[in-house]
Amino acid sequence: MRLPYFPLSGGAPTATFKPLKAQASSNQEGEIIDKDIVFVAGSTGRVGSRTVRELLKLGFRVRAGVRRNQLAEALVQSVQQMKLDGEAGKPETQPISNLEIVTCDLEKKGSIIPAIGDASVIICSIGASEKEVFDVTGPYRIDYKATKNLIEAATLAKVNHFILVTSLGTNKIGFPASFLNLFWGVLIWKRKAEEALIASGIPYTIVRPGGMERPTDSFKETHNLVLAKEDTYFGGLVSNLQVAELIAFMAKNKRLSSYKVVEVIAKQTEPLKPLEELLGKIQPQREILGEYEVDSRPNVDSTSIATETFSRMTAPKARPLSPYFMYDDFKPPSSPTPSKAKASSKVTSSSASGD
């Protein structure tokens, strides 16, 4: 079932444009996942909004999750201004027809699955607002709890790929991680979100970008991407646009990016390399063999691992011999054993009373 997308409005976009709330259906109702639909959480942020546009360039249909429709006005206007080259002999395509705005508050679990709908890929680039620096609960509520809510909903929706954007320095101690954690432990909560995603069983990619505050979109003209495995870098810079381009590429190349934790910065001295080459050098934490997910271990026959995994899944559980097995953990309290010190003191006192 194809959901309603934004119609192209005539003329130039205006600030009074009001996005409509799209009614998404739940995968729990028997909907088939559409491999061309991506749900983006944090779609109005600096990384998220650029990611939406990059996904549209690659031909995806994008479902942008926002807490309130009014927050999406700038995103809709920027997409309306996009023009993509069509095929030879055909007019330019209009990306706005492939954008859908859905209201979704990740702190309210009930709104998440309907917003995901039949999306096959989820991209999460949310984070506690830097403007609300005095909100002690921000990193816990947004970077961890809201992200965890989305992960749980994605598990129920049976999505095929979950891309999570966290931060360089996550899972590290020392500068600048210790400095960033002064913002109410933000990197600690981001790490907790990473752990929740890895434990969920969903094919995942975790992207840890360097600092994105200073570099503008033109940063890529002088600085080329560097990708590394987890816990490699302590610092570095990269632009929001470079991260967005990488995320969109990962969504398009699931097998190449799944089960990887990728740190990304950009260097002026680094030669320009294709993303396939950069990403291909990072080893996945797991690999997919057919429908079975298998830990990637060197010098081990993958087929035998898959067979072993299947055997464990299908082997019947041993039935306890005793009908009282549920009481095995229930033990009556035992009387304390007198210590030697107490025993010796009793002997001494009895000896004294005997005198």
Describe this structure in words.
The strands form 2 sheets. The chain has an 8-stranded mixed sheet, with helices on both faces. It has a two-stranded antiparallel sheet with strand order 9-10. 32% of the residues lie in helices and 16% in strands. With 355 residues, it is of the alpha/beta class. Residues 1-30, 290-315, 320-335 and 342-355 have low confidence and may be disordered. The termini are far apart. α1 (46-57) packs across α7 and α4 (138-157) runs parallel beside α6 (186-200). The longest helix has 20 residues, at 138-157. The chain has helices at residues 46-57, 73-80, 112-116, 138-157, 177-180, 186-200, 240-252, 254-257, 275-280, 302-314, 340-354, and strands spanning 34-41, 61-66, 99-103, 119-124, 161-165, 204-209, 224-229, 260-267, 286-289, 292-295. It has 2 domains: 27-284, NAD(P)-binding Rossmann-like Domain (Rossmann fold), CATH 3.40.50.720; 286-317, no CATH class.
Tally of structural domains: 2
How many strand units? 10
Low-confidence stretches: 1-30, 290-315, 320-335, 342-355
Query: What is the number of helices?
Result: 11
Structural class: alpha/beta
What would CATH call the homologous superfamily of the largest domain? NAD(P)-binding Rossmann-like Domain
Shape: globular
How big a fraction of the residues is strand? Answer: 15-25%
User: What is the CATH C-level name of the largest domain?
Assistant: Alpha Beta
CATH T-level topology of the largest domain: Rossmann fold
The whole-number mean of residue pLDDT values reads: 77
Strands of the widest sheet, in order across it, are 3-2-1-4-5-6-8-7
Instruction: Tell me the series of helices and strands, N- to C-terminal.
Output: EHEHEHEHEHHEEHHEHEEHH
CATH architecture of the largest domain: 3-Layer(aba) Sandwich
Helical percentage: 25-40%
- How much is the radius of gyration in Å? 27 Å
Distance between the termini: 98 Å
- Major β-sheet profile: 8 strands, mixed
